[in-house]
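If you are new to this repository, start here. Below is one unmodified record pulled from the training split, so you can see the exact layout before writing a loader.
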Amino acid sequence: MGNVYVGINLEFTRPEGRSFEWATAKAAEMGFAYVEPMVHWGRELLSAAGYFHSVSMLDDPLHMRENVEGHGLRMSAMSAHSPLCKPDVSTDYLKQAVRFCAEAGCPIVITDDGPARPAWGGPDEHHVLMRYALEEAVAAAAARGMVLALETHAEYTATPAAFARTAGLVDSPALGMNLDTGNSFLSGNDPHVWLEEAIDDVVHVHAKDISKEDAERYRGKVRGMLGCACGDGVIDWARIVETCRRAPRDLVLSVECGNAADAERSLDHLVSVGAQARP
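And here is the target side for that same chain:
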């Protein structure tokens, strides 16, 4: 039986146009104990100028660690999404993310199959490409006592059967599942049932709710979007928390929503249905 904590994905800063440093300070101010940062390759103007929360993997990971710990926070995972069907990109990207994450003191790197893929070939060829990237990234994670978490997101992870085929490409305890409740719902699944069936493999959860209006408008048409405040949409959070308690490990419900007000209300709601604000 595991403990269930509440964290925040730093995507909530998008409307604010603020930096990673602003995001962690705001997360601590709202009462979160866990954060989920995002990293990227190379340099890009918005982050460098402090208008976006993503952190370059060319920066010193110890600076990230010092910032997070300086606010009394912990990292639940790190978002390092990459196109697995393009191993010329994703292999080195994910291996660098694992090394960066390890030095920053974060236990989990999250990726997904991504929408980008070669124009040629089909599922069989794509799975060969994904296997190469996953084998290399998982080996790097295993050597450091970390986990690579595959998220429920695009075509090859959007349903239980699709996810099982992709995750089954690699046989390693260093490969786990990041179940995104909103993404899985938008793809036409029941995320409550999927979580219950997969709970032994789940290492992290994106706590994403979908408003009733967005559910009617987008379900079956998109596989991912930022959510509304937890408790305002279609997800039964009491059931999600109860299922997470049956996990063989502690889990963090990392809230993924579109603004700070929804983040704060999500924390209040998840605590009200049994999750813990902090260890």
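Two things worth knowing about this chain: The longest strand covers residues 4-9. The two ends are 15 Å apart (CA to CA).
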